[in-house]
Design brief:
Strand content of chain A: under 5%
Largest interface: A-B, 45 and 48 residues
Order of helices and strands of chain A: HHHH
Helix content of chain A: over 70%
Structural class of chain A: mainly alpha
Distance between the termini of chain B: 44 Å
Radius of gyration of chain B: 28 Å
Number of helices of chain A: 4
Distance between the termini of chain A: 43 Å
Number of strands of chain B: 0
Number of helices of chain B: 12
Largest sheet of chain A: none
Strand content of chain B: under 5%
Number of domains of chain A: 1
Radius of gyration of chain A: 18 Å
Number of strands of chain A: 0
Number of domains of chain B: 2
Helix content of chain B: over 70%
Shape of chain A: elongated
Oligomer: heterodimer
Amino acid sequence: MPDWLAWLTYIFPLTYAVRLVLVYEFDGSCDEYSFNTCNELLTNTDADPDDVWWYWLVLSAQFVFFRLLALFILQQKAGQFY
Amino acid sequence: MYEGRRELVNEKFSACGYPLPPDYNPADWIMYCAQSATMETLEKAGFFPVNDFSAHGKKLQQDNAKALASQVSKLDAAAPPSDRVGFKTQVKWLFARELKHLKRNTHPLRTRTAMTVVISLLCGVLFFEAAKQSYDSFINLQTAFGALMLAMMANMFSTTLPALVAFPEERPVFLREYSAGCYSVVAYFIARLTMEICITAAQVTVSTLITYFMVGFTQNYGLFWLVTYVMALASTALGVMIGSAVSEPSVAIELLPAVFMREFVESVVYIFGLAALVSSAEKRKLHSANMLALFVFLQPKSYLRDSSSPRKRCPIGSLG
């Protein structure tokens, strides 16, 4: 993925949702093991247990933002006809 | 010009060379034809067959005209002049229509349910009890990660696609009704949103129930459901945004690879990697990993190799 398209990652809800489920699935059990892959997986996906509130916020904000934008576009386009 | 049942409008008008366009209100079409074509053209087209009414027929016509006139004058006296019904009424009726659509046209709903169940079952079978093993081993960890990714992606696609296509599909009807002043954009939007919120909740519940308990994730089910639901809603919002920006359903579908491609390619690369890993690890899992590789291979490759005709072999479209 070229750098100039990297920002796309941040507008996809899936990015934040996957981080959330990863934190919920692995975070509690990560420290039990000496093997470090568990923590590595969280690091590689940028899933930080401390940022959970932020992921939730972004997800909800995306829902509101895209919906409002869709409403705006729809209103603009509907006014263009007739 | 026309007298008869609504269902037969198209038959008569097609015969005269003015077939009813799709998604068009028959009464509107009659008015349109009557206003846009000249009297001579309409006569030539055969809209006014020469009838010699019998005496009985004539009397019946006159009676009808009288009855109609008295009804109209009564209505005029009774109804107060108002341009538009209230916002609540608009939403209520639009939502009622959405419900009727759902009941009458069950095909999209059935496809949606079937696809959700099939993909979730696939995810559950391929990663059966994968998360129940200790995360101490790298392979188990990777497998659980794969299961989570697949479960989330299945939810994303199966909820977003129908929403993406719905707006452009309804566009002709929406534009005509909106321009006729039937309702405001906000009312239409809220009615659709309410419907989508309900359907998405049901869909996510079915999907998460299957994947969660088959794969055996250790996290809290309620949280898992909530993350999936909020993600599905946010993706649907993104889909609706694109859907309302384009005018043709096919354009929306063709835009889709550009929007979702990134995540798809990434997961393909990941799942192939997983397949290689697992195949070297265990014989039993080799089988399921191959099945998964095959499934993923069938899905996105046609986009990668031949992007010029994505509609003909639209694998993602079939997910919806």
